[in-house]
Amino acid sequence: MKSLRLSRIVKTFGTVEVLKGIDLEVETGEFVVFVGPSGCGKSTLLRVIAGLEDQTSGTVEIAGVPVDAVPPARRGIAMVFQSYALYPHLTAAGNMALALKQEGVAKAEREARVAKAAGLLDLTPLLKRRPAELSGGQRQRVAIGRAIVRDPKLFLFDEPLSNLDAALRVNTRLEIARLHRALGATMVYVTHDQTEAMTLADKIVVLNAGKVEQVGHPIELYNSPRNLFVAGFIGSPQ
Ligand code: ADP
Ligand code: MG
Prior knowledge:
With about 240 residues, the chain is α/β, with parallel strands linked by helices. Helices cover about 35% and strands about 25% of the residues. The N and C termini lie far apart (about 40 Å). Adenosine-5'-diphosphate binds next to α1.
């Protein structure tokens, strides 16, 4: 079954058309990376999938179900942002459990899910700390943990590594790849970093000015870029 299907997604802000008819299919369990220059519409597309932004026209289907009328909390997705967006007054455990609490999940179940996610992310010794007492990398792991505890059908990552220094970026990238294997979840990941795209993706979607330029396996895009834009972005020099 397709985890995600986008059909002719158009988004305009005022008179500016930011997404110009995006079609895309994502298989269950696939790791799909959206790459493209700043301003090409990557975040807007993720926000439309998440339901944080209404598309102007077109359809979003998640696990075979049209979700255009379904609010973000009920789409079975979890989103991880560049800017962690943690609550400063809550501990790591409190941040991870918050959405579950709001959904009415019982305390024992919340604690079990937080403990499991913390184990996966090496966060167990840090659960009682508040965000100010954590490093950038640890905060981003808490943000990822907050997504995992909800057991989403689909993970959306919007440039999750761009606030981390180079060494942490590599570690966290490997961690995300490991999580993808461990959870078997579908992941859609936005970056403007070619290395992240080439190393993480089962499938890369190259976006340019609100349109899909090319979709393919990293090696396919690298070896056979369809045009100069794709070549310049991830292809081999020609
Ligand atoms: P990316 O994530 O690829 O850098 P964005 O999706 O954030 O790009 O933005 C794509 C375009 O849409 C940009 O030109 C941006 O200025 C514009 N845009 C994004 N959000 C809004 C908004 N809420 N109102 C008006 N314009 C927006
Ligand atoms: Mg963006």
